[in-house]
């Protein structure tokens, strides 16, 4: 089994025209928590959003021909909304590709950009199936591969989601004592080991640490003092 991570951007700049209407309200789609297909051709998607829930409600209620129903979990942080709707042709085709191969998607699917829309997807499956799925996806969108490596179920998810370069940086930092107390190496030392500049090392480590912290905190945790 193999794991692949890639960023997908539809050729038309959005997955569904509803996204462009949502953008106009100032609401950002942060990630997709889950996705379920319904026999009547509609799809149920659970999104994490950032923005005005009231503005999003008005947007959804103004499209009765597209939106079947929705539900908002206001108490969640970030806000979570479940929407059942009829997808446009492009999204329907992409979803059909996603269902056509023996590959599993690892949720959440993160939005890395809004306009044009781009999402980061992590998939696990046989290498031939992954290759076929990406080849078909490229007919409808651009695909930028971030990493491909053997899948090990025992590997922590947050570590598996790091790029190959980030994994190399982290391993080097641990091996050389960057995380020991007191610290035994510097960004400059790591840069020399990794053949890059110190600022690049710092950027990698900040992203790695952000991924680790996000994986440790329970859903809905906040940073406010109590």
TrEMBL record:
Keywords annotated in UniProt: DNA-binding, Transcription, Transcription regulation
Residue stretches making up the HVO-0513-like N-terminal domain: 21-151
Limits of the HTH bat-type domain: 162-213
UniProt key word Oxidoreductase: no
Full protein name: DNA-binding protein
Molecular function per GO: DNA binding
InterPro entries hit by this protein: HTH_bacterioopsin, HVO_0513_N, WH-like_DNA-bd_sf
